[in-house]
Design goal:
With 230 residues, this protein is α/β, with parallel strands linked by helices. The protein has one domain: TIM Barrel. It has 7 helices and 9 strands. It has a 9-stranded mixed sheet with strand order 7-6-5-4-3-2-1-8-9. Strand 6, helix 5 and strand 7 form a beta-alpha-beta unit.
Length: 230
């Protein structure tokens, strides 16, 4: 596929909204921020729900990919181009099957975790990677630069498309990582366009994690809908 004549997207492929348990960002603020900084494609990947992504897709004046960050028994998977939510707590193979059954793509976000020692994510086995479409090679909330190089090598070795995302849980994080890529139509075209993309990214401050913790505490006290816009 030739990029000539196709609009270039600046796609942040990992964004959370107030529909995630640890995020308080209203949907309208996400739209305003994206328009201000020139992000014209986002994958909304809330934890274990697609409700916010579906709602934003109806109103946003740019491309919204309905995604979900799914907690499986072996770590977090990402489903993209979903029409139905995938329940948390499934074995990874079953979660992958449910993503594929609805025509979605399977990604592994932050494949080497965020811990200095060890990797809690068990989704980098050959059995799982053989069923994966995308590996996130840059995640702005990952504090260790070595993780980016390892993720890039993994994507290249496995011949998987490489993605990037801010993993934003507060609005100011959106756009700290993105892929500049040709416009696409649907999941099959997306993979081809993503493979032509250029990744840009900056690490976020460790302080952003305090905002996530604060949102989680507030929702537990006041209820899960306390930070949602109506």
């Amino acid at each position: 596929m030739d990029q000539i004549g196709k609009q270039l997207l600046r796609a942040d492929l990992h964004v959370h909204t107030c529909y995630s348990i640890d995020c308080g960002t209203p949907l309208e603020r996400i739209v305003d921020h994206c328009l201000r900084i020139g992000i014209n494609c986002i994958a909304i990947a809330d934890h274990n729900t697609i409700a916010g992504a579906l709602k934003l897709k109806e109103t946003a004046p740019f491309k919204v990919i309905v995604a979900e960050e799914i907690l499986t028994r072996a770590g977090e998977l990402m489903g993209l181009f979903l029409t139905e939510a995938v329940p948390k707590g499934l074995p990874p193979g079953e979660a992958i099957a449910r993503i594929k059954s609805q025509g979605g793509l399977v990604g592994v976000p932050h494949p080497f975790g965020r811990l200095l020692f060890g990797n809690p994510n068990k989704l980098t086995s050959q059995e799982i990677l053989s069923q994966v479409d995308i590996i996130e090679v840059f995640n702005s909330r990952t504090p260790f630069a070595d993780s980016f190089a390892r993720a890039r090598r993994l994507a290249e070795e496995q011949r998987k498309a490489a993605s990037a995302g801010s993993d934003a849980h507060i609005v100011g994080e959106i756009g700290r990582a993105y892929v500049e890529m040709p416009d696409f139509n649907g999941p099959d075209d997306f993979l081809g366009c993503l493979s032509q993309g250029r990744i840009f990214g900056h690490r976020s401050s460790l302080l952003v994690h305090f905002a996530s913790t604060g949102a989680k505490i507030r929702k537990r006290i006041l209820g899960d809908s306390s930070l949602r816009s109506e």
